[in-house]
UniProtKB/TrEMBL annotation:
Entries under InterPro entries matching the protein: DUF805, SHOCT
SHOCT domain ranges (all copies): 10-35
Organism field: Altererythrobacter arenosus
Record-given protein name: DUF805 domain-containing protein
Keyword tags: Membrane, Transmembrane, Transmembrane helix
The UniProt record lists the keyword Lipoprotein: no
Entry's transmembrane regions: 83-104, 110-127, 139-161
Pfam families per record: DUF805, SHOCT
Length: 176
């Protein structure tokens, strides 16, 4: 009789085979070892995390939080809606900290604002890179942000450009 742990392991093996992680021979060998009471040693890589799906068209809060869910994902593509709603939320948060600074004192509000800025720096650059990928451009263009005075404006101008329709070298079309 098969115990519960072995049954779960066989189910996991089926899932890994369906996802293309295990070949048919690796699957059969691991299953035979499980049924004989031995623990199989899998040489294949662990399953890859499933990609984050895009929210519903009218779920604006989910669109704002999507770059945070894709925290340091520099691959793939992002639509303009994802970038601009994230930027809008970041600017509203900055305005709130500015108002708090006037009300409670600039030192405490500035410290909180700097912590928030550090927290969103990586997702902000990542969503910029994905927007550039959406246009078929390399993400290295985001380094133009480092050019004094004009760099951020150049990158923002790129963020306005519509992405390529259909799949490109960086992935499927986020608009579908």
């Amino acid at each position: 009789m098969i115990d519960e742990k072995a049954l779960r392991s066989i189910e996991k093996l089926h899932e890994m085979k369906a996802n293309g992680i295990l070949s048919d021979t690796e699957f059969e060998e691991a299953k035979a070892k499980l049924l004989s009471g031995q623990q199989p040693r899998l040489t294949s890589a662990p399953p890859i995390r499933e990609p984050v799906t895009e929210p519903a068209e009218d779920d604006y809060l989910a669109w704002v939080l999507l770059p945070l869910r894709r925290y340091a994902q520099f691959t793939g593509r992002s639509c303009r809606k994802e970038f601009w709603l994230f930027l809008l939320a970041a600017n509203i948060a900055t305005l709130v900290f500015l108002i708090l600074g006037v009300m409670i004192g600039f030192q405490a509000a500035t410290a909180l604002w700097l912590l928030g800025l550090l927290a969103i720096a990586v997702p902000y650059v990542a969503v910029q890179v994905r927007r550039l990928h959406d246009q078929g451009r390399t993400g290295w263009i985001a380094l133009a942000n480092l050019i004094p005075y004009i760099g951020p404006f150049v990158v923002l101008a790129f963020m306005l450009i519509e992405g390529e329709q259909g799949d490109n070298a960086y992935g499927p079309d986020p608009k579908r």
